[in-house]
Specification:
8 strands, TIM Barrel, 10 helices
C-alpha cells in the first residue's frame, strides 16, 4: 500500500484505542478488519521524541507497511513536554516551537501528512484578552508553518470544547476562523465529531469549513468507545459523505478492557454510516 497522501477518504484508528503493550496484536487486528492506517500518538510508541532516532521511527513505519497500513497522522504531539505553552511567555513558545519542529521530523519519517494540535491545557490564555491571544497564536502558527509545509505536512489546529478544559478555540467555527486568518501553507484545521456533539454544532459546519479541514476525527464525548455514548452519528456522516473532504477519517477513542471488541464495533459503525454500503465513498 502506498503510504503517501490519499485522493480518497481512507479509514484509520488512533493507537490510543489499545494498551501500549498490545501494539503488535492491535496492528494485526486493525489490518484484518480492513483499516487503511493508524494514527500515532508518538510518545506512546517512541517515548521522548528528542531521544528517539529517526532510524527507529522509520523501522516502525516499515512495521506498519508490512501489515498493509499507513500512518495517517500524529496526535497527542505535545503530551509530556515540559516548559511548552502557547501563551505563558516567549520562552514557553520557543520551547513549543522547538518540540513541534521535532514532531515534523518524526511525522515525515513515519510518512504521516497531518499532525493534530489539540493540547487544551497548553493553550489556556489565562488572563490574556481574546484578541491579544488570537494575535499571539496567529503569529506563532505562521512562524512554525514552514517547518511543516516544507515537508508536505500540515499542522492541524483542533477545536476543543470547554468540557475538555479548553479556553481558546472551543468551537469548530473558531478553528476555521483562526486558520483562515493565519492563511499560510502548513497550517489548517482538524475537525472532531466529539467536539461537535458536545457543543451541539450544526453538521453543516463540515461542508462550510471543508476547504480548511486536513484531518478528521470520528469520536464521541470524552473519547468514549464509538457507539456507547448514545450520540447519533447519522447527520454528521451524511454531511461528510456529501462534502468534498478528501483526506483521512480517523477513529479516536480511549482504550477499554475489551479494546478488541470496541475496535471492531467502531469499525462497523463508521463503515456503515460514513461510507456507502460497499465500504467506499
Amino acid at each position: 500500500m502506498d503510504d503517501g497522501q490519499r485522493s480518497t477518504r481512507q479509514l484509520s484508528i488512533s493507537n490510543i484505542a489499545w494498551p501500549a503493550d498490545q501494539d503488535a496484536q492491535a496492528l494485526e487486528l486493525v489490518a484484518k478488519l480492513g483499516f487503511d492506517g493508524v494514527e500515532v500518538a508518538p510518545r506512546k510508541i517512541f517515548g521522548d521524541l528528542h531521544a528517539v532516532s529517526l532510524d527507529t521511527v522509520q523501522a516502525y513505519r516499515r512495521r506498519l507497511q508490512d501489515a498493509g497500513l499507513a500512518a495517517s497522522a500524529l496526535q497527542a504531539i505535545l503530551f509530556g513536554v515540559e516548559g511548552a505553552h502557547l501563551f505563558e511567555s516567549p520562552s514557553s513558545r520557543d520551547r513549543m516551537a522547538a518540540h513541534l519542529r521535532r514532531v515534523a521530523e518524526i511525522a515525515d519519517a513515519l510518512g504521516a501528512r497531518a499532525c493534530v494540535f489539540g493540547s487544551p491545557i497548553l493553550r489556556d490564555p489565562g488572563s490574556i484578552p481574546l484578541d491579544e491571544a488570537s494575535e499571539i497564536a496567529e503569529t506563532f502558527l505562521r512562524v512554525i508553518a514552514p517547518d511543516f509545509a516544507n515537508r508536505n505536512i500540515t499542522l492541524c489546529f483542533e477545536a476543543n470544547p470547554p468540557l475538555y478544559k479548553c479556553r481558546f478555540v472551543t468551537r469548530t467555527e473558531e478553528a476555521y476562523s483562526l486558520v483562515e486568518r493565519v492563511a499560510v501553507p502548513g497550517v489548517a484545521m482538524q475537525l472532531d465529531t466529539g467536539t461537535m456533539f458536545i457543543n451541539g454544532e450544526d453538521p453543516d459546519i463540515i461542508r462550510r469549513t471543508e476547504c480548511q479541514i486536513r484531518h478528521f476525527h470520528v469520536s464521541e464525548p470524552n473519547l468514549a468507545p464509538l457507539g456507547t455514548s448514545g450520540v447519533d452519528h447519522t447527520p454528521l456522516a451524511s454531511a461528510v459523505k456529501t462534502s468534498n473532504y478528501p483526506h483521512w477519517l480517523s477513529i479516536e477513542m480511549r482504550a477499554v478492557d475489551d479494546w478488541r471488541g470496541a475496535i471492531q464495533q467502531a469499525y462497523t459503525l463508521v463503515k456503515s454510516l460514513y461510507y456507502d454500503v460497499s465500504g467506499t465513498e
